[in-house]
């Protein structure tokens, strides 16, 4: 019974947002680009109060292997830890973000990102869900406001950059 209660509490502290986009390219190529070890500075360029990604460092292993982790360095000098949790080429990629050195550290315990890829009309449908786990009930409201006003736009810019990468020159 206690496990169920804890699971329910954790579920109630989640703040999630999902975005979708169509990319006019083959599923394998889109997956390989989005899940690549070096992609973050190319697609996470910033939005509003959310800085872009400058680089990654301290990669522990091949980025196509669950358990590999790295440090993500943002353009404002802050950092976060990121680790691969699932890698099922070309359909599913998931990761966990923890230990941010910026203001979100006061609001979140961790975050999880999930990408699904499926063939669609001569291209690929990409679905991205990002789920924050608020530290507690008091932080859930400001975290929800941040996700709705800033993080959603950050995700939209990222997906637009993915589409732009595959657009004809």
What does this molecule look like?
It is a single chain. By secondary structure, the chain is of the alpha+beta class. It has one domain (15-166): START domain (Alpha-D-Glucose-1,6-Bisphosphate, Chain A, domain 4), CATH 3.30.530.20. Helices cover 31% and strands 37% of the residues. It has four helices and seven strands. The chain has helices spanning 2-12, 27-34, 40-43, 137-166; strands at residues 14-23, 53-57, 69-74, 79-88, 92-98, 108-120, 123-134. Strands 1-7-6-5-4-3-2 form a seven-stranded antiparallel sheet. It is globular. The model is unreliable at 1-6 (pLDDT under 50).
What is this structure's SSE topology?
Elements (H helix, E strand, L loop, with lengths): L1 H11 L1 E10 L3 H8 L5 H4 L9 E5 L11 E6 L4 E10 L3 E7 L9 E13 L2 E12 L2 H30 L3
Antiparallel strand pairs: 1-7, 2-3, 3-4, 4-5, 5-6, 6-7
- CATH architecture annotation: 2-Layer Sandwich
By CATH, the superfamily comes out as: START domain
| Rg value | 16 Å
What is the fold-level CATH name, i.e. the topology?
A: Alpha-D-Glucose-1,6-Bisphosphate, Chain A, domain 4
Tally the helices. 4
Order of helices and strands: HEHHEEEEEEH
Please tally the β strands and state the result. 7
Main sheet makeup:
7 strands, antiparallel
Structural class: alpha+beta
Measured as a percent range, the helix fraction is 25-40%
Organism: Mesorhizobium loti R88b
Protein name: SRPBCC family protein
């Amino acid at each position: 019974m206690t496990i169920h209660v804890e699971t329910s509490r954790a579920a109630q502290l989640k703040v999630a947002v999902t975005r979708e986009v169509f990319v006019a390219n083959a599923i394998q190529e889109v997956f390989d680009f989005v899940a690549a070890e070096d992609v973050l500075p190319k697609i996470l360029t910033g939005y509003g109060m959310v800085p872009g990604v400058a680089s990654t460092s301290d990669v522990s292993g091949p980025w196509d292997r669950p358990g590999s982790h790295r440090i993500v360095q943002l353009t404002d000098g802050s950092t976060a830890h990121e680790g691969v949790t699932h890698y099922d080429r070309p359909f599913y990629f998931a990761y966990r973000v923890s230990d941010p050195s910026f203001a979100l550290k006061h609001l979140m315990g961790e975050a999880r990102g999930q990408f699904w890829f499926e063939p669609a009309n001569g291209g690929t449908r990409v679905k991205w869900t990002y789920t924050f786990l608020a530290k507690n009930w008091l932080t859930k409201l400001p975290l929800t406001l941040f996700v709705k006003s800033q993080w959603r736009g950050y995700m939209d810019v990222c997906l637009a950059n993915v589409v732009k990468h595959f657009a004809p020159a």
